[in-house]
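Re-run with default settings, no changes from the original entry. Doing this only to confirm the output is reproducible before filing.
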Amino acid sequence: YLEKIRHAGALFLGRYTPPSVADYVAGPNHVLPTGGSARFFSALSVHDYIKVSNIVHYTKEELSKVKDHLVRLAHIEGFDAHAKSALSRFS
């Protein structure tokens, strides 16, 4: 289905790739400007004139290696749902 996606800050592929992976450990910025401007802007960065979508894919083993760090950072920032989104992959 990737060829059908036209406007995305990032794509999170597979059961073991919650969006919180990108927030805390994978690196790509997937925050988009508001007002429907995802049609012509990528994630906010200094490259405002280049349209880029990041593709993030973690296996169960890869997420398991970073899970504790991800959960700790999410709790520190007060984003408990981010922590739960990662932990739910293992329940």
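The longest helix spans residues 60-76. The chain has a mean pLDDT of 82.
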